[in-house]
Amino acid sequence: MPKGTVHVIDDDLAMRESIEFLLSSAGYEVKLYESAQTFLDLPDVEFGCILSDVRMPGIDGLDLLKRQKAAGSKLPVLIMTGHGDVPLAVEAMKLGASDFIEKPFDDDRLIGLIELALKQAQEGAKSEAVTQDIATRIQSLSPRERQVMDGLIAGMSNKVIAREFDISPRTIEVYRANVMTKMQATSLSELVRMAMRGGVIKD
């Protein structure tokens, strides 16, 4: 089982083959592209990370970053730079590159950066799935349940919420129980955290 997929984009054939040998030996699945365009022409790539040279004919590494960002891609991008390309590397970081590495690079450092990028991508995907799940739970609430939840996370007691909506505290208790069940929250503090994550409470 490969540790993960690395999409290597470099117009230099010898460099591509050298990286393929190194990463394959380290247990990664490696896919090679001679240009950023070749990579971008693929259907949506959802898994792995990108290792791209910064200076290439046509679409260079910075252009690739801009396009990935515009497309909403979550793939981490590591940029390879030549000696003296630090300003370009800084620009790449501003555009969302997860890191950069200067050629000729240390093999262990490259593998370490790829490991970190893939781990962050995995954690990011899990985190996004949880956020989406919470948003779905919030949408499942009826309008009245949503009002009761808003009251609860605002720190209002059952009695105050009941007065606000002119219904009995007993009915509010039923709505409160429904909210906790639908949100799968075991405590009020957990409900507040979910509301923050689901965008109900703005930072």
UniProtKB/TrEMBL annotation:
Claim: Phosphoprotein is one of the keywords in the record: yes
Residues recorded with modification 4-aspartylphosphate: D53
Domain HTH luxR-type: 134-199
Keyword Transcription listed: yes
InterPro entries the UniProt entry points to: CheY-like_superfamily, Sig_transdc_resp-reg_C-effctor, Sig_transdc_resp-reg_receiver, Tscrpt_reg_LuxR_C, WH-like_DNA-bd_sf
GO molecular function, one term: DNA binding
Sequence ranges assigned to domain Response regulatory in this UniProt record: 5-118
Listed GO biological process terms: phosphorelay signal transduction system; regulation of DNA-templated transcription
Entry keyword set: DNA-binding, Phosphoprotein, Transcription, Transcription regulation, Two-component regulatory system
Record-linked NCBIfam families: PRK09390.1 (NF006900)
PANTHER family the record matches: DNA-BINDING TRANSCRIPTIONAL ACTIVATOR DEVR_DOSR (PTHR44688)
Protein's name according to its UniProt entry: Response regulator FixJ
Name of the coding gene: fixJ
